[in-house]
Amino acid sequence: MESQHMTQQTFAQFIQISPASLSSIFNDRTKPTLAIVEAICAKIPTLSLEWLMFGTGAMYKNDVVNSAGNGSNASQKTSDGMLNFAEEPSPTSPSSSSQSVVPDGNKITMKPQKEVVKIIDKKERKISEIRIFYDDNTWETFVPAKS
């Protein structure tokens, strides 16, 4: 997700899963399912399955042949309007030198993004009356004393 420069929301849309499912994984509420791993591998075939599942080895597969001659670009749009990150970037692309490779044995921990919530100050509310309804279809109304 970080190597693709995507937010959780964008990445979830890119791999076609619900953002809530991805958020639950990052917050350690659930474990990734096979369907999610397959969705990631289908959209980013150059990603190493060993790295994705266990956090070991190189992030990208070493046996991928770079297709510099066909003029493909990593920012090429797909038919559904999403960016196509499945292809390797061309050597002239500035992002090709910024690909990170994780050394063996190290795991990357994704930290969830913090959202700032603004609490809007409201006028203090006061109780005007309380009504209690009984099963014999009667009720009582209680009004607080005015101060």
UniProtKB/TrEMBL annotation:
<feature type="compositionally biased region" description="Low complexity">
    <location>
        <begin position="89"/>
        <end position="103"/>
    </location>
</feature>
<feature type="region of interest" description="Disordered">
    <location>
        <begin position="66"/>
        <end position="109"/>
    </location>
</feature>
<dbReference type="GO" id="GO:0003677">
    <property type="term" value="F:DNA binding"/>
</dbReference>
<dbReference type="InterPro" id="IPR010982">
    <property type="entry name" value="Lambda_DNA-bd_dom_sf"/>
</dbReference>
<feature type="compositionally biased region" description="Polar residues">
    <location>
        <begin position="66"/>
        <end position="81"/>
    </location>
</feature>
<feature type="domain" description="HTH cro/C1-type">
    <location>
        <begin position="2"/>
        <end position="52"/>
    </location>
</feature>
<dbReference type="Pfam" id="PF01381">
    <property type="entry name" value="HTH_3"/>
</dbReference>
<protein>
    <recommendedName>
        <fullName>HTH cro/C1-type domain-containing protein</fullName>
    </recommendedName>
</protein>
<dbReference type="InterPro" id="IPR001387">
    <property type="entry name" value="Cro/C1-type_HTH"/>
</dbReference>
